[in-house]
Amino acid sequence: MPTPDDLPDEDLLARIRSGQREWFGPLVRKYERELFGYLRRYVGDADLAADVFQNTFLAVFKKIQQYEPGRPARPWIYTIATHQAIDAMRRRARRRDTTALLPANDDSPEDSAQNLFVILEAAGPSPVDLAELGESRKQVREAVAQLPDLLKQVVILTYFQGLKYQDAAEILGVPLGTVKSRLHAALAKLTEAMNPAE
Question: Would you kindly state where each structural domain of the chain is located, as residue ranges?
Fold first, then answer.
């Protein structure tokens, strides 16, 4: 009998869809680290990400009959996860009392002379860069968190998760050109935030 690692994700979904529930746990374990990382970046909170992760796989289980055999599994699961994350953030925003909002972080983007593209795309930091890399990454994460949701989704999926633009388009339910234009707009906003005008 094949092990879960021997089977493509599409086969695992097909088996679960046909009623073989014993394959569901292995599917969850295969996505645990990767998908949780995506959700943590997306929602900005580990506890909320854990809840969204659980809700994602609950939704996968409930919607398994909607999965079309042969369809790529990863974009299908990420689509469900993204929708669950959006719903969770909306619920959290509705519950949040405006007086309980925390003030903005005192670390101002003005303190960084780093260009976003250098931080995200550098082939390898020099020893001098290594000293500032931790702070720069924190600033990038904070800048990404401030993006509008439509732009933040694209950055997280393509840069942090490493998905192809076409997969991101399928996950978000938008044309490929929309992903590219949103990514361009996001990078422009991030670059501006990381390098404000003097």
Answer: 1-96, 112-191
User: CATH assignment of 112-191, given 3.90.190.20, 3.40.190.10, 1.50.10.20, 1.10.10.10?
Assistant: 1.10.10.10
Question: What does the angle CA 46 – CA 48 – CA 49 come to, to the nearest 5 degrees?
Answer: 60
Looking at domain 1-96, its CATH class is mainly alpha
Q: Does residue 49 contact residue 40 with C-beta atoms inside 8 Å?
A: yes
Full pLDDT tens readout for the chain, 198 residues: 677 677 899 999 999 999 888 888 889 989 989 999 999 999 988 889 999 998 999 899 889 999 998 889 999 999 999 999 999 988 887 776 443 443 343 333 333 223 343 344 444 444 444 445 556 667 777 888 888 888 888 888 888 888 888 888 998 999 988 988 888 888 778 777 766 654
Is pTM beyond 0.85? Reply is no
